[in-house]
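User: Can you write out an input/output pair for a complex, sequences first and structure second?

Assistant: Here is one pair. Inputs:
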Amino acid sequence: MQCRDVAQVIEQEGFSLLPEAARGHIAGCASCSALIADFERIVVAAVQIPAEVEPPARVWIALRAQLEAERIISEPRIAVPKESASWWPGFGPLIRGRVLATAAVALLVVAAGYFQMKRKIVDLPPTEPFAAAGTRLDQEEMSLGPIEAASLSDVSPVDNSLRENLATLNSFIKECRKRLQEDPNDQVARDYLAAAYQQKSEILAAMMERGRSVN
Amino acid sequence: MTLSPAIRRISASMLLPAMGAGLLLMPLDCFAAGQKIERHFTVKGRPVVMIQNVANGRIEVKSWKNPEIVVSASQPSNKIGLDMEQADNRIDVTASIVDASAQESELTENIQLTVPEETELQIKSQSGLIYVEQVLGDMTLESVGGDIHLREVSGYIIVKTTGGTLVCTLCGGKLKFDSVSGSAQILQPSFTNVTLYTSFGNILFDGDFIRTGIYSMKSGRGLVEVRFAGNDSFDLNAQTASGTVDNRAEAFLKPDSHGIRHSASKYAKGLFGSVGNGLAKVELSSFSGTIRILKRD
């Protein structure tokens, strides 16, 4: 039996129960012995690998924000009713005749019902973009502890920088949200809000990585 | 115990070489702190250098013609440990804090590197300047609070900071910059692709737009200023939600030469137009800051 035959046997049948011929070859072959030793080390190492850990929420938040920023996915837009004031004067001259007037009244009833229903839907409070992501990030931030004034002498400049930037980002997020409340379809504000959440998640990750409490 | 056929194939083809390489990755040295250290590594072709500095301090990278990497480091205290290792063409340099109770002033590690001209870099630092000069190769440079200065560097350059500022002089290739409050100054560049984003910093782009290049510069609250040359050729799209667009290049900016009708959204202020034949694409944006466009003298 040659080395390649042994490799074939290992590939087809594994290396725990090798046939006699293969074992005989391996006993006298340094290369194949080393191969078997490597496999055994892999198996030992694989057993020691910890079980898969659930990634932190910020990973999904950052991922979602990035996908939304790149418009790969999107949250449902809010339909805003358009102004409709100029149709009546043009419509009035059409309902001079009795038949036309009856048809027009019927049409108006249907239209009024439709608009009433539509308005009820539209009057619902708009869904804020990235609201879930924002809430999760706020929870992550809370879990780090309260952020105090960034002038403590025992805090490193790097930690100070992270805190200050986090505080500024929070105020920027508020500004973007306010803008989006005024106009839910403002794409510029939406993009900046997504980017701000993305950066916030990265700052929180950096703070956690540094392993220091922000207390 | 048997492995599945798929795992066996993967094991044979990938894990064994990886394990072999792993044996080469054993740390070559772990230097005692509190001294000046210098190490030489012989490399071939285009090496990869990875530096991780969890301490503070300056990192300086310069190039030479020799196929050798020289790493020298200085430490004012013995609270920092420095590991260096070579795995074929990859050099890892890691500065770590040995004594967690050390004072902030003791946690400084300055690292100087001399590398072949064509070298790839991955540098991660906390604070302190990262300075790279005359290196050709892809690089990822990250810092929390430190500034990053690049001079005559070319490649796919990714820069990420929290508060650090990027100054990029005479650089080429592709650039991606992302920062929370850091600013970016791009001076005399030859980039074909630029993506700059900062939430609160300022952006200055002073240089030529390469034809067919794509340039995107965005700042949340800061100033985005572009100074272009009279013979440049680009399409411009500038938008701000609540900031201002300061167009000082009206004489050069014509309606879009490609016949596309642009309009800003109802609530955004926008400026669209072409300079020259509109060959490059330039997108400028600021949420509440100022966008300034001017032709340089």
